[in-house]
Amino acid sequence: MMTQSQRILDISAKIGDIMVENLTRFERARIVGARALQISEGAPPLIKTEKIRPLDIAKEEMEKKVIPIGVRRREKGY
Q1: Whole-model pTM above 0.90?
Q2: pLDDT for 8-27, tens place per residue?
Q3: How far apart are the first and last CA of the chain?
Q4: Cβ-count burial of 22 within 10 angstroms (0-12 exposed, 13-18 middle, 19+ buried)?
């Protein structure tokens, strides 16, 4: 049986989302906020940590680059 985090990774791999290395501060805030919401709703953390607050856990996951959320950007001139 797959865990929820394994399903998320599998789904994101199938969709073909691209994780952009140079995220804007707005993209970073959106990703961390979305992941913190997932954790607060019961999703298991993807890292071992001593932190308790979902936002702190999500920030640490972002620093370690384990969040399975990608960013799709439109081309210029949209």
Answers
A1: no
A2: 555 554 444 445 568 889 99
A3: 42
A4: exposed
